[in-house]
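queue> pop job 88
queue> type: inverse folding (structure -> sequence)
queue> payload:
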């Protein structure tokens, strides 16, 4: 995809310090071992000649540290999963009711280490629209989308200080936050993965114009 599609340059993704980290954790706090493999699906679709990115909002649950957060469909790897792509496809089926045959996988982004010690593989896939998506009621509160053009606009995203804690440490970290869109707040690991997707577009590793007929 050319940057002209956005009417703005994506060079800010690389030029702005702090946006392209592959973890919110500083090096001295990154876990050495015991990391949990996981994957997410970053679903893309076209609507009214515009690309959109699909998200979920997780159900509020006091036992879930990511309760109520905006995220991508995804989760940890199961023993029966063939690979990291298979994880993302299975989770999309379970969380938003989308069969794997209806997803065209077009790219896989670099892995991302979360503050909860998950090593997440972001899988980019084109999904159908419109479609009768069905939220898994115990995990997903809402399915919604944000235009890719809006997500690519530097004016809509920033770095903020946030105190992050675990049982072993506490630190003030630089975290990516988008402005609210449709009353939803994209931030943290999912926002970092979104920046990684924009980087792939900027570098030409991902070319969505090749997939317009598939959307």
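queue> result:
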């Amino acid at each position: 995809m050319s940057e002209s599609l956005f009417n703005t340059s994506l060079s800010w993704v690389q030029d702005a310090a702090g946006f392209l980290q592959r973890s919110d954790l500083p090096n001295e706090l990154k876990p050495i071992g015991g990391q949990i493999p996981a994957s997410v699906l970053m679903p893309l679709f076209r609507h009214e000649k515009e690309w959109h990115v699909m998200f979920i909002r997780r159900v509020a649950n006091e036992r879930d540290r990511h309760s109520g957060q905006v995220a991508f469909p995804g989760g940890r790897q199961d023993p029966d999963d063939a690979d990291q792509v298979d994880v993302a496809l299975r989770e999309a089926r379970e969380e938003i009711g989308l069969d794997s045959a209806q997803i065209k996988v077009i790219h896989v982004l670099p892995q991302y280490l979360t503050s909860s010690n998950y090593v997440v593989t972001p899988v980019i896939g084109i999904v159908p629209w419109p479609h009768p998506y069905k939220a898994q009621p115990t995990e997903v509160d809402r399915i919604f989308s944000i235009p890719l053009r809006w997500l690519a606009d530097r004016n809509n995203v920033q770095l903020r200080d946030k105190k992050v804690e675990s049982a072993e440490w506490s630190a003030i970290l630089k975290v990516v936050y988008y402005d609210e869109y449709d009353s939803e707040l994209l931030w943290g690991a999912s926002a970092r993965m979104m920046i990684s997707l924009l980087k792939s577009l900027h570098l030409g590793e991902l070319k969505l114009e090749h997939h317009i007929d598939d959307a």
